[in-house]
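Below is a filled-in request sheet from our internal design queue. Each sheet records the structural input a requester submitted and the sequence that came back. We keep these sheets so that new team members can see what a complete request looks like end to end.

REQUESTER: design group, bay 2
PRIORITY: normal
MODE: inverse folding
CHAIN LENGTH: 355
BACKBONE (tokenized):
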């Protein structure tokens, strides 16, 4: 463990104060090699260094987001410090403090916790007053400078529209992520908007809808097990906010011999889900253009660090303040277009999904 990593561990665990931590970080000087600082020899690079704080690198997609961001940052000639917080709020706070001590000119953050992320923005603004960009989520702070996030309503709409064309009417279930996270709420609302006329007419009955903290696959498994018991296995479709929960739902369906017989979808196109799409057990998964998201975050950080206004296509109002951002589009991926999807992106390789 490097000295910098030990300092982060110590302040996260409360063994040293934040004041002592900052003082020792400053004494260390530039610790860029430890934190993963990327360099470019491009003449227009200037002295711009951007910090990117991830909640962790355990989730399948975060490594891809990191790669897309770094590729664009390298093109721009921008230096960067990238850290993963192991889903620990205190560690994320400490890592951001270390980035500030090294003089970053902008911060991109995927918060471990939305509420803690709001507090962190307040502190960054008070301590350094640098631009802050919220990535993947829109942190509800009026001091936020910019955001990059998917159109979550569109994800739910894509799922529901394809379900209506392929699934039988009757008993349906909706598997949602954490109720306190806007991503889960918006995906669910997008799906329900599309389904509402059919629910109102009685053609579709939502026999089960539950929210699951931490996007737990085990919660989805239990929910669909209960839904199957409740309906005596008379279930026609399951719309899941996310692929991990779709896989949990698939386990419940498989146990009852219903894999491939009940229409099922998710979001993110995990490798495991890609394989199940090939097998016919999962009908589709929505995929957000994360290449665009990573590039948009790099472009925004580069512009804001120079005092320029980044390109945006949307805005959100937070406590009366309009915050501009980039709304990233999504597409549905199913068996019919999976091969094309693999060619257009480097998200997965054919061998990852059994093609």
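RETURNED SEQUENCE:
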């Amino acid at each position: 463990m490097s000295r910098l990593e030990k300092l982060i561990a110590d302040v996260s665990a409360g063994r040293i104060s934040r004041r002592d931590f900052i003082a020792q970080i400053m004494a260390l000087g530039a610790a860029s090699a430890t934190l993963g600082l990327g360099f470019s020899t491009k003449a227009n690079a200037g002295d711009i260094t951007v910090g990117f704080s991830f909640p962790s690198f355990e989730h399948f997609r975060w490594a891809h987001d990191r790669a897309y961001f770094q590729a664009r940052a390298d093109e721009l000639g921008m230096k960067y410090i990238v850290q993963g917080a192991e889903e620990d709020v205190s560690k994320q706070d400490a890592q951001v403090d270390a980035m500030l001590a090294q003089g970053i000119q902008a911060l991109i953050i995927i918060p471990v916790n939305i509420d803690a992320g709001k507090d962190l923005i307040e502190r960054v603004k008070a301590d350094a007053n640098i631009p802050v960009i919220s990535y993947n989520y829109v942190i509800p702070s009026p001091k936020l400078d910019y955001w990059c996030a998917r159109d979550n309503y569109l994800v739910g709409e894509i799922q529901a529209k394809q379900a209506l064309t392929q699934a039988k009417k009757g008993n349906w279930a909706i598997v949602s992520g954490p109720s306190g996270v806007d991503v889960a709420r918006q995906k669910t609302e997008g799906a329900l908007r599309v389904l509402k006329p059919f629910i109102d007419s009685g053609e579709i009955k939502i026999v089960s809808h539950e929210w699951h903290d931490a996007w737990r696959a085990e919660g989805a498994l239990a929910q669909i097990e209960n839904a199957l018991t409740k309906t005596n296995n008379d279930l026609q479709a399951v719309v899941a906010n996310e692929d991990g929960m779709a896989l949990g739902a698939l386990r419940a369906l498989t146990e009852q011999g219903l894999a491939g017989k009940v229409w099922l979808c998710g979001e993110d196109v995990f490798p495991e889900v890609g394989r199940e799409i090939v097998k016919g057990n999962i009908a589709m998964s929505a995929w957000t253009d994360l290449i665009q998201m990573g590039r948009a975050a790099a472009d925004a950080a580069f512009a804001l660090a120079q005092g320029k206004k980044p390109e945006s296509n949307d805005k959100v109002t937070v406590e009366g303040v309009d915050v501009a951002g980039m709304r990233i589009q999504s597409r549905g991926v199913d068996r019919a277009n999976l091969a094309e999807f693999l060619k257009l992106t480097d998200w997965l390789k054919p061998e990852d999904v059994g093609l």
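SHEET NOTES:
- The two ends are 41 Å apart (CA to CA).
- Residues 30-44 have pLDDT under 50 and may be disordered.
FILED BY: M.R.
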